[in-house]
Amino acid sequence: MTRTPVNVTVTGAAGQIGYALLFRIASGHLLGPDVPVNLRLLEITPALKAAEGTAMELDDCAFPLLRGIEITDDANVAFDGANVALLVGARPRTKGMERGDLLSANGGIFKPQGKAINDNAADDIKVLVVGNPANTNALIAQASAPDVPAERFTAMTRLDHNRAISQLAKKTGAAVSDIKRLTIWGNHSATQYPDIFHAEIAGKNAAEVVADEQWLADAFIPTVAKRGAAIIEARGASSAASAANAAIDHVHTWVNGTAEGDWTSMGIPSDGSYGVPEGLISSFPVTVKDGKYSIVQDLDINEFSRKRIDASVKELTEERDAVRELGLI
Ligand code: NAD
Ligand code: LMR
C-alpha cells in the first residue's frame, strides 16, 4: 500500500540542530521505516542559501522515504498542511541581554509562527518546540493558535530525560534499557527536577537501588539540570546531535506510543495535575497511546520532590507572567 507522505516542518533548518535532525527525519527515524515524508524547511532570509546546501545533501542521500523538500522564509508556506512541526529556530541569549529582552525577541518568532500554524497546518498537527526558552516559547505559539487544540503544543524535555537515564545507568552499572519510569518535572532549565523516586532499574525502585540521597541532591540533579551549560562549555556550542536525537524520540513516542510499563517526559499544557497551574507548559510523566498522551496520575510526591517541582513551576509561572506583561500571550 502506498502511504500518503507526512508533511514535517522544521524551523531553524540551517542551524546545527537542523543539520543533525533532517537526515534522521528523512531516513525514517522520526515516524517509522514505512512512512514517507515531505520536508518543509523554514529559515530567515539570510540563511536560505545554507538551507539549500543542506537540501542538496539530503538529495544526495537518495532517501527512499523523502518525497519532497521545500525551503522558504515564509511561515505560511512552511506550515501549509503541516502534520508535524519542529520549532527549532530561536533567538539565543547574547551578551548584555536581559531575560525580558530574550522573551520579547522570541515572542517575535513564536507568535507569528503560532498564527501561521493556526491558519495553515493540517487538522492533526503536532508541534514540538525545541528553541529556548522552550516551554515558554511553546506557550507563546499556542496562544496565537486558538483554533488548534492546546494539547498539540509541546516543549522538549526529552533530552533531559535521556541525560538522566544515562547518568543513572552510569551510577548503578545498569543498562540504559533496564531503566524505566524516570520523570523530568518542570522547566527545560537549570530548575528542572529529574525524579528517580518512581523510576525502576531492572524492576527495582531506583531510589532504593541508589540509596544515596546526597548523590541525588549534590551530583545527579545538578549534573542533569546543568548538562546543557556543561556541553556549551566543552563544545563551545550548545548540544546539537543529542538535542536532535531527543526531538526524534519525543515525536516518535508521541506518534507511536510508550512501551507497556514505561513512561516518558514531555513538556505539555498542565491540566492542574500535581499542583501545576492549569495551562502552564510544564514537564510531566506521560504515557502515550494512539497518538494521545496522558499524565501519569496518583504518584506519591515526597517532600524532597515537592519542593523541587514547586521551584521549577515557580520559574515557569514567572516566565508566563513576563510574556503576559509583554502582550505575547
Ligand atoms: P543555531 O543558532 O545553530 O540555529 C538556529 C537557526 O534558527 C539558525 O539557522 C537561524 O537562522 C534560525 N532562525 C532564527 N530565527 C528564525 C525564524 N524566525 N524562523 C526560522 N528560523 C530561524 O541553534 P541550534 O544549536 O540549532 O539551537 C536551536 C535552539 O534549540 C536554541 O534555542 C537552543 O538553545 C535550543 N536547544 C534546546 C534544547 C532542548 O532540550 N529543549 C537543547 C539544545 C538546544
Ligand atoms: C541544552 O539543554 O543542551 C540546551 O537547552 C542548552 C542551551 O542553552 O541551548
TrEMBL record:
Q: Which reaction does it catalyse?
A: (S)-malate + NAD(+) = oxaloacetate + NADH + H(+)
Q: Which Gene3D superfamilies match?
A: Lactate dehydrogenase/glycoside hydrolase, family 4, C-terminal, NAD(P)-binding Rossmann-like Domain
UniProt entry keywords in alphabetical sequence: NAD, Oxidoreductase, Tricarboxylic acid cycle
Q: Which residues form the signal peptide?
A: none
Q: Does the keyword Lipid metabolism apply?
A: no
User: Which residues are NAD(+)-binding?
Assistant: G12, A13, A14, G15, Q16, I17, G18, N106, Q113, V130, G131, N132
| Enzyme Commission no | 1.1.1.37
Residues in domain Lactate/malate dehydrogenase C-terminal? 157-323
Residues in domain Lactate/malate dehydrogenase N-terminal? 7-146
Q: Where in the sequence is the active site? A: H188
Binding, substrate: R93, R99, N132, R163
Q: Which InterPro entries match?
A: L-lactate/malate_DH (IPR001557), Lactate/malate_DH_C (IPR022383), Lactate/malate_DH_N (IPR001236), Lactate_DH/Glyco_Ohase_4_C (IPR015955), Malate_DH_AS (IPR001252), Malate_DH_type2 (IPR010945), NAD(P)-bd_dom_sf (IPR036291)
HAMAP family (alphabetical): Malate_dehydrog_2
Record function comment:
Catalyzes the reversible oxidation of malate to oxaloacetate.
Q: Could you tell me which NCBIfam families the record lists for this protein?
A: MalateDH-SF1, PRK05442.1
Give the family per the record.
Belongs to the LDH/MDH superfamily. MDH type 2 family.
Q: What is this protein called?
A: Malate dehydrogenase
The record lists the organism as Streptomyces xanthochromogenes
